[in-house]
UniProtKB/TrEMBL annotation:
Protein name according to UniProt: Amino acid transporter transmembrane domain-containing protein
Domain Amino acid transporter transmembrane: 15-325
Membrane topology summary: Multi-pass membrane protein
UniProt keyword terms in alphabetical order: Membrane, Transmembrane, Transmembrane helix
Main location: membrane
Length: 338
């Protein structure tokens, strides 16, 4: 971002550092927000699992606090390559769990004519935030590319980026569409909470929890990488290691505390997506393209229309999505107005 700004018009070139920090702030908010959502997701599923299969009854807040222990341990892993084997195993387990869930979704559908074909306009801003949250991997794109032995394979037409995006899109569309056909208006914040109350399907929740548990340090890696680089530049070598681990633990505790404050999964997802996901996916990329095209003298009418249109759409979504999410969160805590 900084390089793009410094290639832009004269009036903006001196603000490269400011724009760089704006991207960093949004990235931190997004990644920590994703981590908070992971806490809530795991706590919801663990609570329902143990409530329905044992005599262990712990509140959602209690599960969030207990999860602090394994997550803190995993977040001591500082190398992305060291997390890769765990991520590979988690992806394999996730694939098995998704296949089992799909089998349930295809087993029985509600009558199509009894389900609404479209949602209400009032829920559209919340939907926008949820869609933006789906871009939760946007901040790990560059770190993954930088860690690859052959980075060129990341952006080829059939490379890592396009292939992974297509696969994720297909999974989202399939689970979302058939999940609604299966459970209709009774569908909950996460589909796993709707699964049949049998030991087999309850075990699927644990599989998803383990996958998310491993995914947490991957999302946590991005902001911590920035922090570590800053520490290595500014702090004497003898104090670097203790400070790095202290900040890592503090970051985990912060996300845990935020998850305790807003323990409503769907609303948290929409809020994070509207606030940070929108900027990282629909504001900064078009701005970078405009600045780069300016430096190459390739600012055509179509480039202007496309990028200004995207940013205008982003601002509308950001404003309405954030407001709607906050209103719903306040109402969820028993208040009638903001």
């Amino acid at each position: 971002m900084r390089s793009a700004v410094e290639l832009g018009p004269a009036w903006i070139r001196g603000h490269g550092y400011l724009f760089k920090q704006m991207v960093n702030i949004n990235m931190f908010v997004a990644q920590f927000g994703f981590c908070c959502v992971y806490f809530v997701f795991m706590a919801d599923n663990l609570k329902q699992f143990f409530d329905q299969t044992s005599n262990i009854h712990i509140s959602q807040a209690g599960w969030i606090a207990l999860l602090l222990i394994p997550i803190s341990a995993l977040c001591t892993i500082r190398e992305l390559k060291a997390l890769a084997p765990l991520a590979a195993i988690a992806n394999f387990v996730y694939l098995i769990a998704v296949v089992i869930v799909l089998q349930d979704l295809f087993s029985d559908w509600q009558p199509w004519d009894q389900l609404p074909a479209f949602g209400s306009l009032e829920s559209l801003p919340l939907f926008f935030g949820t869609v933006m949250f789906a871009f939760e991997g946007v901040a790990v794109v560059l770190p993954i590319e930088n860690q690859m032995n052959e980075p060129i394979h990341f952006i080829t037409p059939n490379g890592v980026l396009n292939t992974s995006c297509i696969l994720v899109l297909l999974v989202y569309m399939t689970v979302g569409f058939f999940g609604f056909l299966r459970y209709g208006l009774d569908i909950k914040d996460t589909l796993t909470l709707n699964l049949p109350q049998t030991p087999f399907y309850q075990a699927i929740k644990i599989m998803f929890v383990l996958c998310i548990l491993v995914s947490y340090p991957l999302q946590f890696y991005v902001p911590m990488e920035r922090v570590e680089k800053w520490i290595k530049r500014k702090v004497v070598e003898t104090k670097q290691e203790p400070m790095i681990y202290a900040i890592r633990f503090g970051g985990v505790v912060l996300t845990c505390a935020m998850a305790q404050l807003i323990p409503h999964l769907a609303l948290f997802i929409s809020l994070v997506g509207s606030v940070a996901g929108t900027s990282l996916t629909l504001v900064f990329p078009p701005l970078i393209e405009l600045l780069c095209c300016y430096s190459r003298q390739e600012l055509t009418k179509w480039v202007w229309i496309r990028n200004i249109g995207l940013m205008a759409f982003a601002m509308v979504g950001f404003t309405t999505g954030t407001y709607a999410s906050m209103v719903q969160i306040v109402e969820a805590f028993g208040k009638s107005d903001v």
